[in-house]
């Protein structure tokens, strides 16, 4: 009986050791293995065996992490107070560094993203912050990527989500936009007047070179106005036309 219980206990102990020694890693996971506290190697994916009590293992996810950066209060280069939030996309490319070089790399990256967002955007004016987001996204991404490289982390993209302004600044921007629209409208109107005057000058010069064309134009105007029967319009007869009729009447045989 004692031998039976002893054998059963040995089997249970062996099964427990095997369960503790077996690890299964998915395709996007890696395991950082330490041998008696010292780094040994990175294992995975698939089935991994470790020595319980001698080796310790830290599981690392290699998928891209979407980090939401909380809204940050900052002052732009032209002394405008705004609130800006963003989203950062990063992933672990070196599991060894992500475990050894930094404690809680997710929290460390989040804090670094917040400070970098304030420092980079604080160097630019409000107009740049509103109109050149792509450039600012690239600047923040490069700074973050350079600083997290020592942690084995690759920052692939940064996107500024919202820029919140106070009501007085929103009204000032609206007035500025309205003034800009009025300026453009006046310029377009002036350009139209200039083009119309140039065309009228060309038409006048062409009619001046051909008096017959002036008379035809006069008759065409009479024809178009005669169709309106709501009012009576008196047109003066051109002197050239009267002279032409008088000359015709004085011809012999008329």
UniProtKB/TrEMBL annotation:
The keyword Cell wall biogenesis/degradation does not apply. Residues 20-177 form the Band domain. The chain crosses the membrane at residues 6-25. CDD domains: SPFH_eoslipins_u1. Pfam families: Band_7. Signal peptide: none annotated. Keywords: Membrane, Plasmid, Transmembrane, Transmembrane helix. Gene3D superfamilies: 6.10.250.2090, Band 7 domain. It is found in: Membrane. It is a single-pass membrane protein. Belongs to the band 7/mec-2 family. PANTHER family: AT06885P-RELATED, BAND 7 PROTEIN-RELATED. This is Slipin family protein. The lineage of its organism: Bacteria, Pseudomonadati, Pseudomonadota, Betaproteobacteria, Burkholderiales.
């Amino acid at each position: 009986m004692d031998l039976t219980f002893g054998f059963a206990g040995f089997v249970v102990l062996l099964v427990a050791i095997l369960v503790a020694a077996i690890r299964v890693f998915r395709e996007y996971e890696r395991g950082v293995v330490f041998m008696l506290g010292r780094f040994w190697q990175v294992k995975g994916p698939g089935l991994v065996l470790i020595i319980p009590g001698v080796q310790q293992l830290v599981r690392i996810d290699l998928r891209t992490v979407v980090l939401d950066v909380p809204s940050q209060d900052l002052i732009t280069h032209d002394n405008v107070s705004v609130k800006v939030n963003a989203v950062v996309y990063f992933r672990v490319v070196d599991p060894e560094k992500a475990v050894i070089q930094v404690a809680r790399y997710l929290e460390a990256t989040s804090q670094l993203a917040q400070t970098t967002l304030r420092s980079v955007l604080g160097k630019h004016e409000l107009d740049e912050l509103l109109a050149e987001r792509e450039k600012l996204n690239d600047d923040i991404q490069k700074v973050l990527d350079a600083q997290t490289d020592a942690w084995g982390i690759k920052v692939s993209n940064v996107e500024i989500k919202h820029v919140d302004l106070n009501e007085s600044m929103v009204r000032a921007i609206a007035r500025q936009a309205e003034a800009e629209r009025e300026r453009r409208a006046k310029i377009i109107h002036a350009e139209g007047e200039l083009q119309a005057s140039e065309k009228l000058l060309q038409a006048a010069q062409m009619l001046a070179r051909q008096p017959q064309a002036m008379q035809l134009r006069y008759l065409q105007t009479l024809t178009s106005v005669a169709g309106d029967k709501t009012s009576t319009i008196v047109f003066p007869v051109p002197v050239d036309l009267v002279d032409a009729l008088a000359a015709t009447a004085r011809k012999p045989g008329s």
